[in-house]
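pinging the channel bc i need a second pair of eyes. not urgent but kinda urgent?? the chain im working w is below, pasted from the shared doc
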Amino acid sequence: MKNGRAQAERYFDEAVEYFLNSREFLRSCPVENDRYQKIKLVQEAFGTAWLAILKALRGALVERGVLPKKLPKSFDAYTQAVQKHLAIRNGKLMQALDSAYHEIHISGYDGGDLVTTYTVKAAMETAKRIIETVSGRRIV
């Protein structure tokens, strides 16, 4: 179990690092009239934020005894694993994960549809909240 904890900590470290990198992408993107001007940078930020969420979830699952080779490979598998291992009594995590998938992964990264500063910031706050919740770490 000690080895599982060390693996979980590595995933949590990576999650925080990825999330901080995603914020840097946004900081480097010019803003005009509350709209990001370089969609590619916004998409990179969202792609990196989504990876940060997945890293945090992997860490939390490993921490709860899921073997690294048994970690989920698809979003549906992640939702099942989160329901089973992480959100047994708390539906807020499942709601946040569902929102993050649609806002960050689908609309922000894949579609490049989120460009206003307030929608981007709200989606990034969801990512931050998920990472902090499952990792127990505070991101500043």
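so The chain has a mean pLDDT of 94. and DSSP finds five helices and two strands in the chain. — does that match what u expected or am i reading it wrong
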